[in-house]
Design a protein that fits this description.
Layout lengths: L1 E11 L2 E11 L7 E2 L1 H16 L2 H7 L1 E4 L8
Antiparallel strand pairs: 1-2, 2-3, 2-4
Helix pairs in contact: 1-2
């Protein structure tokens, strides 16, 4: 089984979080896939962002606030 480091993005409202996970690669048809722990981490970050609990999300990921940009010339 091979492991590959990846960054997954979780978007909720005006926040985006970068979550470090490992993709597991093997010979099964399900490959590549996340470990149960990494899948739970993504869910925990998403739930925290939806609740507006940025400190909790920041413990598991790098959190960014989205800001609209004017497109006028």
């Amino acid at each position: 089984m091979n492991k590959r480091h990846r960054v997954k993005h979780v978007h909720a409202g005006r926040y985006v979080a970068e979550v470090d996970v490992e993709l597991l690669q093997d010979e099964t048809d399900w490959s590549p896939y996340l470990s149960v722990e990494d899948a739970c981490k993504l869910d925990d970050v998403r739930d925290a962002l939806h609740r507006g609990d940025i400190p909790a999300a920041s413990k598991l990921a790098r959190v960014f606030r989205l800001q609209p940009v004017s497109a006028s010339k």
